[in-house]
Amino acid sequence: MKTIRLDILSGDYKQNIEKAADILRSGGIVGVPTETVYGLAASALDDNAIKNVFSAKGRPQDNPLIVHIDSIEMLEKVASDIPKSAYLCAERFWPGPFTMVLKKTSLIATSVSGGLDSVAVRMPSEKSIRDIISVGNLPLAAPSANISGAPSPTSYTHVLNDLDGKIDACVLGNDCTVGVESTVVSLLGEHPRLLRPGAVTLEELKEVLPDIVVDDAILSEPKSDEKVASPGMKYKHYAPKTESYLVEGDTNSYCQFVNTKLNCLALCFSEDEQYITVNKMVYGTRLNEQTLAKNVFSALRDIDKLGVDAVYIHAPSKSGVGLAVYNRLIRASAFRVIKL
Ligand code: TXA
Ligand code: MG
To answer: I need a surface site. Which of 15, 258, 265, 314 has the fewest CB within 10 A?
Structure first.
């Protein structure tokens, strides 16, 4: 299939947004920008379109998708028995990089939730996807627009590298400003549960949900037969083909360590750069974890182009947005952590 380019940067914005909404309304699948990562969108009401999303990505069918909405009105159409805490979270964190898991309504296509009776819902802050939802008056199910297992796409070029020819269209918009996927919180159990860390931090969540608990799967390796609260966490994720290690340590010990390695890459902080004598790639500053979040996936995509035997990634702190970056990197490194 030929993937139509819908250029909203140098082309006609309104016309291309309408075209995207049309394609989605008629059952097509479209790459769309969001503030976190690019999504591969389909109508959340159309079982067949959702199945095409799973097959374009090569995604396991039991890993459910996030439904994107543009209003509280739409929230109330896709979720039922919405607790008061959900409205408090919506007020504080929406629109933005925050997803909540609620009880689903029958409006949502069964394949969206992989057979669960819950639905994950998010109101993105990126204007273009919100406009597409509004113009189509359609909630959009959208996983990240990458081949399953690959690093998430933070630019339309990443989307086309993975999915050109496999999807009906791709909206060519801005690079993602956040760079890691949304924070996912389940509001279904006795206590709210953080299932995936993101740019809305645990510290911020505690202000609205003081009794929130953190799912063990965030930082530990899932057992193959374990029943996990968020099915996405049991799959191998984000991994470059190059063998990767996550290295915890200060500037000094990290740089000394990597400098002894042969044919390797140091994926490091700008603070490390001047002390490193092997191949290096900077992914941000340790003083501002948002810079690390913004660059981490495109760095992971670039590693395999270098032909090195191994990559040693300098681990961020686990506080603030650092927790989200650490969570992605420990998966990219297949849980190989070196503590110096
Ligand atoms: O930022 C984001 O959330 C991006 C953009 C496109 O919005 N989307 C995204 O989708 O990251 P995806 O499919 O790559 O990740 C969805 C995550 C998975 O870990 C999945 O298991 C979890 O959300 N999830 C979805 N529905 C769920 C449900 N009903 N219960 C528990 N976890 C759910
Ligand atoms: Mg994903």
So the answer is: 15
